[in-house]
Amino acid sequence: MPKKLKKSLKPKLGQKSQHLSVNFFYHGLSVRHIFRLNEIEKYFIKVADTVEQEKIAKLFETFDSLIVAYEQKAEYFKNLKTSFITKMFIY
């Protein structure tokens, strides 16, 4: 890779990341001197298949519903605590 190209990629790469973002490739293609198609073909961008993406989405939906349920439970116990404290000092 030419030295000039390495310098231009440095800010685009995260300090720990070894991969270029898809967004960078997309926008980099519009500027001819940054990348050529044969250079882009060297990089692999992993994308999960549709079935796996659906499983992941379902998992996150489950997490979301669990979070909502626990938030409702926490709110219930806060209200219960408040009512107990109120009753404790009224009588």
Could you list some keywords that capture this structure?
single chain; 91 residues; 65% helix; DNA-binding; rod-shaped; mainly alpha; 2 domains; 4 helices
Low-pLDDT segments: 11-16
| Helix count from the secondary structure assignment | 4
Q: What gross morphology would you assign?
A: rod-shaped
For the record, give the distance between the C-alpha atoms at the N and C termini, rounded to a whole number.
Answer: 81 Å
Report the average pLDDT across residues: 76
Using only C-alpha atoms, the radius of gyration works out to: 26 Å
Helix and strand content put the structural class at mainly alpha
Q: Sheet bearing the most strands, described?
A: none
Q: How many structural units, i.e. domains?
A: 2
Strand tally, please?
Answer: 0
Order of helices and strands: HHHH
Q: What percentage of amino acids are in beta strands?
A: under 5%
Question: How helical, in percent, are the residues?
Answer: 55-70%
GO molecular function: DNA binding
Keywords: DNA-binding, Restriction system
InterPro entries: Restrct_endonuc_typeI_TRD_sf
